[in-house]
Amino acid sequence: LLVYLYWNVDYYIVESLLGTTALGFYWLGFQMSHYLLQARVSLMAVMLPGYAKLDPGEQLRTGYVLMTTGTALAYGLPTVLFLVLGDSLVFWLFGEKWLPATGVIQIFSVVVLLRGASSFWEPIMLIHRKSNSLFLASCINAVTIVGLGLIAIQHYGIEGMAFVVLFAVGFTTLFSFHRVKSVLGELSVSRLCLRIVTVPALVSAGWLVSSGGDWLRTGTQPIIGCLCVLLSYATAAYLVHRKAFHEWRLDARAEARPHD
């Protein structure tokens, strides 16, 4: 019942206060995030037995940090694309009638980034028999979405509701980091946060504050704009995480080398 409430209560609030048209725009943004996050279901099925085999100390801690970083980089790309290209990308993908949903889609793209990157605390909590933390986070999220959502939607419309969901997911992300730290120890919450937001924030801000952002949104074909954003994102990811990339490459070579 709690899970159903968590995933559907915002729909009921939007439809009741703003009508079915607004619900349609909100639904598109929410479903975009839902479809993008489907990949984590498969990851969770693999990660739970994988985590169980790792040493509960350094190995598990390193695995958690690497998976969080890698997932943040993967989900950060659609976030940057929607933040930078905005209306032009929505028009290209869905058509002109869905342009009012652009703001909601942009907000939910950030939700995807946070929710995807914080996914890996769930198997760690289950392995250490601390599923009560998962239940507590769900309860707080449900209460937050209902309480703040009813207020925000009356003043800021569907974007206000989406921001409440973002606020709730942001809380869950920080809460998950602190809970994982309490289990694994020697884990920097501030560093984890930086690993998630640094590359998407740098690339988005770089395009949005420069004249290049206007050129991407109005002076190019969307596919060219996507390629430009992709190239800049890959460059920033390498520059920010080049040390980690080097370590991953060395580990991969060590695993591929035949053992004597």
Can you offer a commentary on this structure?
It is a single chain. 87% of the residues lie in helices and 0% in strands. Helix 1 (2-18) crosses helix 8 (131-184) and helix 3 (39-53) runs parallel beside helix 7 (121-127). The model has no long low-confidence stretch (mean pLDDT 83). It is mainly alpha-helical. The chain has eleven helices and no strands. The relative contact order is 0.13.
What attributes characterize this protein structure?
260 residues; 11 helices; mainly alpha
Q: What is the fold's blueprint, element by element?
A:
Blueprint: H1 2-18, H2 20-36, H3 39-53, H4 58-85, H5 87-94, H6 102-117, H7 121-127, H8 131-184, H9 189-209, H10 211-218, H11 222-256
Helix pairs in contact: 1-2, 1-8, 2-6, 2-8, 3-7, 4-6, 4-9, 4-11, 6-8, 7-8, 9-10, 9-11
**Molecular shape:** flat
Radius of gyration: 20 Å
The profile of the biggest β sheet is: none
Helix content: over 70%
Residue stretches low in confidence (pLDDT < 50, at least 5 long) are none
Q: Say how many strands there are.
A: 0
Tally of helical segments: 11
Question: Structural class, judged by helices and strands?
Answer: mainly alpha
Instruction: Report the order of strands and helices.
Output: HHHHHHHHHHH
- End-to-end distance, in Å? 54 Å
Q: Compute the average pLDDT.
A: 83
Beta-strand share of residues? under 5%
